[in-house]
Specification:
By secondary structure, this protein is mostly beta strands. It has one domain. The protein is 12% helix and 52% strand. The protein is elongated.
């Protein structure tokens, strides 16, 4: 039993370290300043994937949102890129820990707003 005690203590320490919740948030504003795309992610522990909410807003009004998972150690400017081609078009790219990319597109017309994942 004395030999198992140190192993149990080490296992408990690693379990406690891995259970700390992790969050990440960032946003980007359109060139004309009217639209903001925000990314908010949460994961229960450092070992889990992020549950991400991607939302487009005009002022304080939500124009649409998506929820999905991303496998990454952090959620920040190093693995989330916003590429605005103009005030109505933005490509948002998420890079997983393994290098795989997921691409989302925001675009607005006079009659609608679309926020969707690009298919390969």
């Amino acid at each position: 039993m004395k030999k198992l005690t140190p192993l149990l203590i080490v296992a408990l320490i690693f379990t406690a370290c891995g259970r700390k919740p992790v969050t990440g948030s960032l946003s980007s504003t359109s060139p004309d300043g009217k639209t903001t795309i925000s990314v908010d992610g949460k994961k229960a522990s450092s070992l889990d994937p992020f549950t991400v909410t991607l939302e487009a807003k005009s002022g304080k009004e939500s124009m649409g949102s998506l929820q999905f998972e991303i496998t990454a150690s952090t959620l920040d400017a190093s693995n989330v890129k916003f590429d605005w081609s103009d005030a109505n078009n933005c490509i948002i790219t998420f890079t997983h820990s393994d290098g795989e990319k997921r691409v989302f597109r925001y675009y607005a017309t006079t009659s609608s707003v679309i926020l969707r994942e690009e298919t390969k």
